[in-house]
């Protein structure tokens, strides 16, 4: 900023020449050109001068002309652009069941809590549905929309399912350790089967009934051989008993738990199981490239906070103690001013099946249900029974209810209100509705969560997936068939809030999309490797480049609009596919015209797409373009290291091929083909020969290339087989024709006694099999056949004569 023009010294000078000299000296240290705007002081100083300063006073003269010019010709008014209104991010909020403009409570910071897994078994694709989807949303909010996201997630390591599974595993291990005889195993399984079959008979849920029937069928199939072996006294009984024990372990462990579960009192038994499965869960998430949470909370580490949380709810008048347990008073909460129960799914209030599932298998006995003032009330704190872990509390020894854990832990980390709460669709009621109620009862507010996001269900080939129904695919099983990127692409190609069907068709679509994108990236990399000098990479833009660039910016806008619209990655990926399609068409047209595509334009497009897939979590590493080569980031610099050598090899091979073609040295050409088709694919290198153009070199995963090679061999084998079949068929037809030619026309109809009964002297039929005279129309058709055979027979006779 320039200092204010102090022109007072000019008033003390009367001579014009001296005044100009003094002004020049003063202005020599002032900026009066670049961005200079004259002030009133400049105008007043200008008025003191009778004319322009002498030419030797350069600074004063420039200043004088600048002021004079602005006085005579003021600058035209500036017209600001109208601009366009940018789309705002909207998220589907389960609280309102509509898309709402996303507005964080604290500037750019986003507080986010996500319900984590109950760790009692292997993580499955249902878990992946939620955690990959939320990872995608989280990355987009952080890396695309540039929000400062603070992400908290829990691990449920105290739960009815965990307690029951831990007890059952412990008791079954004890049973196996005793090494019971074959007869004892048979007797125990038959005993355990009675309550199991009673349970099967009273089960009405079709999916659950089908699961129990499958188990019963497997047990029945294992029972028969063991019963036969014991009856006949064969040594095979020991082997058959172990087969039965494996098939019947679920119903046997259920029976053992009902008999001896109350005797399991060691708390460590209940901590080993969740600790093991939590570790496996984290390994699975790492393999899926799911970012870890900023904060992870475990129920077992927050029991004191949970107790204090329950105490305050009771103190606020929304909870009550009953027989050592504490329940939430839904009626009182719903009737109080400023509160509402079941905000998410009000129509589910009173759904006893859902409520009982929320309470847990160990907490729905008749005595427990009778403790509550209302069937809709739910447990905040459960008095522990024999065979259950317990902690001290003001109400006696007990353990946390399921819903309270999230409220206490999220409240402890995020405070009285969060921006986003996430979870699976099936958690809306009762879990999330109960979370909302007890948290708002604790904080005495009505906005514990501002935006509730729920991911859609996952089905397996159209069927419901459920761990309890034993109809699930573990994440490890899924990763054995497909890569983490392919699974993520499958999720990106579907709406995060709708049902996703995990099927062969779904995964094949993801694989083809990945292949489509990878080929584009590889082609652009190849174009960028074309030798050129620094200035040569800046090429003139013709109409084709201008058109592609226009499409590029249109697609970027369309992707942005899609992501603003509830983070619609499905539409975003389709817009990306269209952009790549247009780019491929541009490259093909340039190559057809024997012209190089514009490097800088294609580089910009490829870098943008790479950045977007990094944002989606589908690309790891620092490569500026494309999917990384190699696995687990081990070969992040592989391409830049080996590509110069591969280019030398490719150029040398092309030179050898040229000489071999000119000299017609077939063996050398075959060796060059072997390098391309057999040797380099084993190293993860693909060579693409193009007539009249240089060979394209691409680095691709070895497994992908070997698979492509096998598919190519299959196609070639199928082509060869069809060619052989066609040749064989042609040969058979030729042989049939040769055999037919040898038949005299007078004999051709005589053998068809099932059709004709009388013939004339030339062997032409006159009556059908029933003795009726053949009609004129039929005679006309037969005459044509007769004449055709006569022609064939004459050809045969002629060929024989020529041959002799």
Short note summarizing the structure:
It comes from Pygocentrus nattereri (Red-bellied piranha). The chain is of the alpha/beta class and 804 residues long.
Model description:
Residues 713-780 are annotated as: Disordered. This is Cysteine--tRNA ligase, cytoplasmic. Catalyzes the ATP-dependent ligation of cysteine to tRNA(Cys). Residues 102-510 form the tRNA synthetases class I catalytic domain. This protein has 27 helices and 18 strands. With 804 residues, it is of the alpha/beta class. The strands form six sheets. The protein has a five-stranded parallel beta sheet, with helices on both faces. Strands 6-7-8-9 form a four-stranded antiparallel beta sheet. A three-stranded mixed beta sheet has the order 13-12-14. It is flat and about 150 Å long. The model has no long low-confidence stretch (mean pLDDT 91).
Total strand segments: 18
Beta-strand content: 5-15%
Question: Distance between the terminal alpha carbons, to the nearest Å?
Answer: 117 Å
Global mean pLDDT: 91
- What value does the Rg take, in angstroms? 42 Å
**Neighbour order of strands in the largest sheet:** 5-4-3-10-11
Note the main sheet: 5 strands, parallel
Overall body shape: flat
The secondary structure category is: alpha/beta
Helix content: 55-70%
Helix count equals 27
* Stretches with pLDDT under 50, minimum 5 residues: none
What are the defining features of this structure?
five-stranded parallel β-sheet, ATP binding, EC 6.1.1.16, ligase, 804 residues, four-stranded antiparallel β-sheet, 27 helices, alpha/beta, metal ion binding, zinc
